[in-house]
Amino acid sequence: MCKISEWVVCAALVVLAGGALAEGAVRKPWVMVDFEDDQAVRLSASQTQSVRVPSQGGHALQITTEAQAQWPSVIIQPRQGVWDLSGYDAVEMDVRNPGDIPVRVLLGLNNANSDGVHNCNVESVTVSEHGEGVVVVPFGMWHGSSGHPLDLKKVVSVNVLLDKPGRAHCFVVDSIRAVTRERLDLATIQKDPFFQQLKPVLGRGVNLGNALEAPREGEWGVTLKESYFEKIRGAGFDSVRIPVRWSAHAEMMPPYRIDPEFFKRVDWAVRMALDRKLRVVLNMHHYNELFEQPEANRERFMALWKQIAWHYAGQPPELMFELLNEPNGNLLADKWNRLLADTLAVVRTSNPTREVVIGPAGWNGIGELKHLKLPEADRHLTVTVHYYNPFHFTHQGANWVGAESTQWLGTKWMGTKAEQQAVEKDLDLAIDWAVKHRRPIYLGEFGAYSKADLESRARWTRFVAESALARKMSFAYWEFCAGFGVYDPVPERWIQPLKEALLPLGR
User: Domain check: are 34 and 158 in the same one?
Assistant: First the structure.
């Protein structure tokens, strides 16, 4: 939401005068708002109270929201009427949370005719209790979805808000600034010795989704069959990713024993793949209780992995472990970094050299790589990211996203130069991080839901797949035979345009 109907004028804030630099000049961050000069901006609020407070030798804005507020907000407008942000790439804002629970803070940039979705850019950051964070709003983005143009010369306001927080919050914001990002050159990245020796060992893969990660196999319409593994290998795929909801098949109290019958079912799936020379990524999927209560489920998570690791210790190296699919919710980056390090130590007692796949918090988003901290000495690690941009295209009509997904129906992906560049820019960020940190990257999920037209799905899928491989990223398409599927289990045949997008003819 970028547009607030009720405005209540509040007290004092601020912005520095200035604007875009001359064309071609090196751009340093431009502080638009620093909360020092109370005459530089106009401040409007809805369901909030705000006050300037001392902060690190200067001032910041403390915002307190009402308990029942749906979208409590503070809108900041420049006294000169507009900000000219041309020549910059994004806006950043520092956030501090003195409270005892995490808070998700949104920052919006608005043109005069913004309606909450169009003509505005919005992103968010979740800040842990007593923690600090930075919300970054890249131009052209709206909650992770690209293709949202903004007139950079006519930004009339920034909007600090919460989205249905469900309780009162008090947080502090400071230093709203326009920034430029490092211009990534794929040709330069490809010259790096680490990139040149990279081998995408998992190659072209597919997820066996909606089966073993359902609460019970079959509840989501997919029950694995031996013929599926035959078809996957016969088509030319190199690997499979097997999502597994271990948490639904284990005791809730110590020692958290995993059901032996469920272990046998997973064993069968692993054997079906390995027997057909498919590499396997075996993960822990949908551990929702861990996302909601990280500390309460910490010991159980580690105990599950201790059992899994010992159980498969004798398997060949073609079997890889993935610690956790899409850490999110209250499992923020700092908590996840600590948990992954401790859990990896548990795995290493029985599997000292097995390749382990780990992704960042924040749903394995590429933009979250900067917060991922891995044990530096462990070089048997592959880093995974997931990719579903533009989200309004890939998730149109997906009812689990929310009722608004129906409004996206009919969104196409035509493969225009701008659309392709948006994908390339995202994947360049991932491979740049990989090269700098000397870690291989695995695109563990990407896909477009079946409510999108098939031609657009095939175009997008082919472009993402080939762009990933050009950056030496292995991939696993989401998924085999359900809502995103590349295979139709009813007539038992491949959806040919998607199959050819992932496995070009003549390969």
Answer: yes
**In a shared domain, residues 107 and 25:** yes
Are the C-beta atoms of residues 419 and 456 closer than 8 Å to each other? no
Is-cis flag, bond preceding 255, omega within 30?
A: yes
Which CATH number is 324's domain given?
3.20.20.80
Nearest alpha carbon to residue 364 among 305, 443, 466: 443
Percent of the chain scoring above 90 in pLDDT: 77
Find, among 443, 442, 445, the residue nearest to 480 by Cα.
Answer: 445
Lowest mean pLDDT segment, chosen from 296-305, 347-356, 391-400: 391-400
Is the residue at 428 inside a domain? no
Residue 80 pLDDT: 84
Helix, strand or coil for residue 89?
coil
User: Is residue 339 situated within a structural domain?
Assistant: yes
pLDDT of residue 41: 80
Helix (H), strand (E) at residue 206:
strand 204-207
167 and 217 in a single domain? The answer is: no
What's residue 504's pLDDT? 85
Report if residue 481 sits inside a domain: no
345-371: per-residue pLDDT in tens? 999 999 999 999 999 999 999 999 999
Q: Known catalytic residues?
A: 326, 445
Helices (H) and strands (E) in the chain, counts: 11, 22
Query: What pTM does this model have?
Result: 0.83
The pLDDT of residue 506: 56
Domain that holds residue 28: 8-179
DSSP-assigned letters across all residues of 448-477: --TTS-HHHHHHHHHHHHHHHHHTT-EEEE
**487: in domain:** no
Beta-carbon-side half-sphere exposure of residue 53 (alpha carbons within 13 Å): 14
